Amino acid sequence: MDVLTFSPKSRHCAQPLFLVALVSLLSAVGFVINFGTLYPITIGWVLLSSVALAVALAQLRQGRHSLVADDRGLLLLIDQTVVPIRWDQIQRLDLIAEQQLLGIRLKPNAHVWQQLSPRQLRRWCRISQGQLRQFGAPAITEGLLAQPDLLHQQQYLSQQLADRSGFHILLSQGEFNDDLDQIVGQLRRAHQEFMWHQPKRDATVTPIDANTTQGTREARALRSGDSRR
């Protein structure tokens, strides 16, 4: 299948804004160094260039939020965290229209969170807690505090989110440039195509016992003898 890439809106303007802000800031600093005097307009120039550079850097970080799909599965790229999910680990893909969210429900044996580092798990715990608040659930509970480490905390939060929303992972419309219903449709078709081409399991064949075969032949012979009489 073709590689499907869904990127956020900010990616298109982040790099030009970063270059313009960087050149402007360097020019302002060079002006101050050459003339040695800080004019009010120069101070404003430096401040505006610094703000523009900070905005561009934030947009570049957000530009890493994307989703890539191919014949192997999905790649979620969220805030420098890559979460690979194979197609056979996904149970369902759907759209929560009321909140414009893409939901991914994992199978019970999908060990997605075990692939993440502690820093990435901490990031996903914050994401899951924020999404739980959207559904009116408390972000911190006694069950969460009882978990021994970050991995079990994220697994617990993911399950709590699935109990509330029906999905373990939620992605919002604001993270993508394309319409969410179009993204969901393409991903659902790719998932169904993968499941369709999966080899079907062979039916279990019960071995035939030799004694059973011999008994069957004798019964047929008796029936044929009775019919001749």
Automatic annotation (TrEMBL):
Segments crossing the lipid bilayer: 12-33, 39-58
Composition bias, Basic and acidic residues: 217-229
Span list, region Disordered: 209-229
Keywords: Membrane, Transmembrane, Transmembrane helix
Protein's name in the database: DUF2982 domain-containing protein
